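Suppose a colleague, Dr. K., hands you the sequence of a protein chain of 182 amino acids and asks what its three-dimensional shape might be. Before reaching for any lab equipment, you can write down a predicted structure in token form. Begin with the sequence itself:
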Amino acid sequence: MTDREITDATAPRGLKTWLWIAGIVSIVMGVLAVLFPFAATLAAELVIGAILVASGLLELVRALAMRHNGSLAWNALFGLAALVAGGILLAWPMQGIVTLTIVLGVFFLLGGAFKLVAGFGLRPFPGWGWIGFSGALSVLLGLLLLFGLPGTALWAVGLLVGIDLIFLGFAEIAMASAIERD
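The predicted structure, expressed as tokens, is then:
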């Protein structure tokens, strides 16, 4: 059985249509995020804040519900930490944007350094240079984000989310195109 036969035999009816819709919506949202990176950055920061608040509330409820298992204090502290962190992001979104950009910059710096080391460690294997190149680009991006603060905070997260959404949209459309039947 070929990959095409497996895909066609196991794909639920209507999947192709939903992948096309999801792909187009992802591309449109990604393009909007790239065109309006500050709005997308602010939206991402507010969503993360809201998720932390909701998670914190749920953790506090869970801690109370499971208080007899001996971990009430630790579960409650975790819930409280998430609640406070989310509340801070929602109350002071501009500072939250800067914080997210710092975290992203440090992530790119560390991840890039690890990829550079891994690339040189893979040196005898074909293609090792691509890992190193990817690492160098990550380090460069991390430096750009960190040394460009606070200006980069206004666009970086939104732009990266937009680029990710565009690639996701094209991937979804490619998957839909690979399915022969609907």
